[in-house]
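Hi, here's the filled form for the chain we discussed.

Project: internal
Contact: R.S.
Residues: 386
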Amino acid sequence: MISSDNVIRDTQSLVRIDSQNPGPLEAACADWVEQRLLAADIKVQRQPVAEGRDNLVAVVPGNPDAPRLVLLAHLDTVPVGAGWTRDPFGGEIADGRIYGRGTCDMKGGLALAINVLETLSKNPLPNVGDVVLVATVDEEAPGMLGAHALVASGFLRPDDQVLAPEPTGMRLRIAQMGLRWITVRIHGRMAHAGRAHLGIDANHLLAEIVSRLKVTFAGMDVEDPLLGKPRFTCGTFTGGVATNVVPPTAEANLDLRIVPPMTIDDLELLVREHVDAVLAEHPGATADIEMLGAARPPVRAAEDAKIVRLLRSSYQAHTGTELPSGGADGHEAYTDASMVATLTGSSSCTVFGPGATDQAHTADEFVPLADLVLGTQVLWSMLEAW
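And the returned structure, exactly as it came back:
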């Protein structure tokens, strides 16, 4: 059985390493994980992704006739941000929780994966195939460079069973919403605010575009029984040069999330149509539309995939209840497992892990100790049934 005490200690140690993206990035965290695995006599390979940024790949060899289990866990976190009442790098335990940036997203899941490999290396199970940990960089950024580098390397196999122990509140995330980040820049005409009629207010035009998109998304007659309805967020909006100057430029970064049967192409066309419609009402203005990072279409694992079947049966064995899916388990959050599924076409990629998505990216982020304990039980039971 996997030691939950070790998982808890490793989670605390990982949280105490600053791996914000953007920020210090993942090098120190990667070094710690590498040394932790080497201390457990598990070999580690580094897969260069960008300057100073390496994925780590560790394998515990198993039965060559059985499919591999590939655990995907990212090393980076989002920035700390404001509003904390606890040390974001303290790894403090209180009220049955570990607090700190990355506790649930996803250093608790990374610690769990490390201890799966260590336990299996000391207690081999004859029916288990190779168990692989890929600790990736750049999951929290638009490009998801670590997942792309992993797929491009050719390391993955068609029959790999892929699990990201990301925060799901210990629910099965069998499907993911599609996601596209789009930057819209409006170029108007600068003028004195006292002679505003001589200018073209870029802020006004961009605000109109954002408002119309918001209304369009809210009114869409599209809903997936598991994923729900499409979602729209204007994440950032900047523009203008001074209070008494008609704004010559404005820029917004949009977060757009879709469900089947919508496609990424549909999404990009929708934004272009709204931008063109507003520009047509304001002659002289122009726009740039930039697709930011990787396109992320909706993905779904197969119900009969080995990883899905065994997670369900193992969870039932330990809790006496069916493994829940859907609802508040973060189907809107795109993970490395989702990107691997997109890039490879695999239907054996899913997500299940400690911590609730509602806590990810928040101040006073935490992971419940009970989730870490249940994670050790379910994953070991899954391997025993492999």
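Let me know if anything looks off before we file it.
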